[in-house]
Amino acid sequence: MKLGIIGCGLIGAKRTAAMPELTLVAAADVDYTRAQALCARYGGQSFDDAAGVFASDADIVVIAVTHNQLAPLALEAIRAGKHVLLEKPGARTAGELADVAALAKEKNLKIKVGFNHRFHPAIWKAKELVDQGAVGEILFVRGRYGHGGRPGYDKEWRFSKSLSGGGELLDQGTHLIDLSRWFLGEFTEVRGVLPRYFWRGEVEDNCFLTLLTAKGQCAHLHASWTEWKNMFCLEIYGKDGKLQIDGLGGSYGLEQLAFYKMLPGMGPPETTIWQYPFPDSSWALEMHELVDAIQNDRQPVGDIADAIANLTVVDALYAQGASA
After folding, report:
1. Helix/strand/coil (H, E, C) string of the chain?
2. What total number of domains does the chain contain?
3. Parent domain of 247
4. What is the pTM of this model?
5. What is the pLDDT, as a whole number, of residue 95?
6. Which residue, of 59, 94, 115, is where some domain finishes?
């Protein structure tokens, strides 16, 4: 298959590097030098706008741009007959994705949204264990995720509400929501507080969320741009045990999964730990998932329906006026 890239910054470059077996045929960026640099390294023709990518013979187009441009460019890609890997959160609101989903279904094209965290090996293993019934019925999920930004972070595009649609809730918060939905199912009640503690601007720098399913299962989540030491932790509590994922590699620390199996007499659990010290493979595994879905005409794991459900939660939280 042939690949096109729109948005040749950090994420666009990661996506290209993750799939060396795909031939890069076209890359576009408003900063033309970035498109040139990507093509100089991986091949293909560089452009200063997306039209060149849509006119190319790319089978899959990766769209890694500011949030306000995600849905409009996805629509253009589908009209051009391309499958799409659309970076998360997919749009600023659920409504912006409705036409994208309808057109993709009409043309039988696949839309994968970039929820790459599902493909981290510790998280994938945890899902397999849950599906096997290893921890019994899930009671609740607790998640924390954060980084501390960088000098001038509040001057970047993420702090412009017209470009981003929101702050940390739409950034790392949507990863936590996606993973919680994956383990618990749909949320019927959402509550949250979205303060601006440190980074002054139009959007929140923290989000504290309580999300409930129809059965009363709870996801208690905190995503932060004031986490001065990068961290990730996701805990899944079942009636028969607990799974805990810590780290994502790199600055987030060693990725590992701990399985705490409750014994008949309770007390200290039987503990099994898997560690994943190798480089982050989630980007490549996610792209492989999209390619396999295209080849086998099925919906990919983490598709546009997941993005719409995710953004429906986000929309509800912003509608509550939860920003402090």
Report:
1. CEEEEECCCHHHHHHHHHCCCCEEEEEECCCHHHHHHHHHHHCCEEECCCHHHHHCCCCEEEECCCHHHHHHHHHHHHHCCCEEEEECCCCCCCHHHHHHHHHHHHHCCCEEEECHHHHCHHHHHHHHHHHCCCCCCEEEEEEEEECCCCCCHHHCHHHCHHHHCCCCCCCHHHHHHHHHHHHHCCCCEEEEEECCCCCCCCCCCEEEEEEECCCCCEEEEEEECCCCCCEEEEEEEECCEEEEEECCCHHHCCEEEEEEECCCCCCCCEEEEEEECCCCCHHHHHHHHHHHHHHCCCCCCCEHHHHHHHHHHHHHHHHCCCEC
2. 2
3. 121-279
4. 0.96
5. 97
6. 115
